[in-house]
Amino acid sequence: MSYVIETTSIDQPVDNTQSLTKRFVVLSYGILSYALGVAALLWIILAAGDLAPIGLSALHTESVGAALLVDLALVILFGLQHSIMAREGFKKRITKIIPQAAERANYMFMTAVATAIALYFWQPLPGMVWQIENSVAQTILWSLYAAGWLYLFVSTFITNHFELMGLRQVYLYFRNKPYTSLSFTRKYMYRYSRHPMMLGFLIGLWAIPTMSVTHFLMAVLFTGYIGVGMFFEERDLLRKFGDTYRKYKNEIATFVPGLY
User: Fold this and answer.
1) pLDDT band at 17 (very low <50, low <70, confident <90, very high)
2) CA gap 170, 172 in Å, rounded
3) N or C: which end of the chain has fewer CB within 10 A?
4) How many CB atoms within 10 Å of residue 119?
5) Rounded Cα gap, residues 53 and 93, in angstroms
6) pLDDT of residue 3
7) Pick from 160, 246, 144, 153: nearest CA to 203
8) Is the pLDDT assigned to residue 257 strictly greater than 90?
9) Which range, of 16-30, 33-47, 125-139, 150-164, averages the lowest pLDDT?
10) Which residues contact 30 (CB under 8 A, 6 or more apart)?
């Protein structure tokens, strides 16, 4: 999600037939999904800086080729979960089974599961790509690493963090309040960058002083996923907002002003 949103109109009317028990279950599921989503993101953040372990599974292969294939498959699984569940067709089908208010929370729950699977079963590879010993360079890179993830975190609040993570929807459902849709607008970093969340993610992936082959492969594969994911996301935004987003896309850089 890479655009700023604000409340506009009522999309879902209040359904007074929903029992308090059902609304409480949906709210609890949303809170659980939020907690798991935050935990999964924290694991990625720490793992990117080699501050938390990955590849905890005992199922390791000694073959470099096999390890590459497994890691590629894990990122593909991660990407498919994100891409398929974000499509409108899937949302329409899943909301025939679960309440519409729980759709985003369900997305966050499955994102946490996909992230945990990818990091838990990640196959380690031998070797080091770079290891910077200079203390000044280390400080600069660690500062960039922290700034990248902080930039991503702040960006989520500019777009309405709780809507993005599914909490707003389940809270309104629990209160038996109508859901109000959120439409496109520009604010803060979104005046200069269409994808500040992804920019923060990329900085956090790459700005580290010690880059093992294991983490290098993770950075490369997730960078590739980001490129593919942004393609589909922008296609959806063009469908949803039409000329409004097309104009925005022509005026605002993908990541950094002056660069595509």
Assistant:
1) low
2) 5
3) C
4) 21
5) 37
6) 40
7) 144
8) no
9) 16-30
10) 101, 102, 105, 166, 167, 169, 170, 171
Q: Can you tell me whether residue 18 is helix, strand or coil?
A: coil
**Percent helix / strand / coil, the chain, rounded to 5:** 65, 10, 25
Domain ranges across the chain: 4-251
Q: Residue 260 carries which side chain, given as an amino acid letter?
A: Y
- Give buried/exposed letters for 92-116 (b at 16+ CB in 10 A, else e): eeeeeeebbbbbbbbbbbbbbebbe
Facing residues of 6 across strands?
183
Which is nearest to 147 in space by CA: 215, 204, 231?
A: 204
DSSP 236-254: HHHHHHTHHHHHHHHHSBS
Please list, residue by residue across 7-20, b when 16 or more beta carbons sit within 10 angstroms of its beta carbon and e when fewer do: eeeeebeeeeeeee
Rounded to two decimals, the pTM is: 0.87
Tell me the two tokens of residue 18: 């929903």
Residue 98 scores a pLDDT above 50? yes
- Residue 51 is which amino acid? L
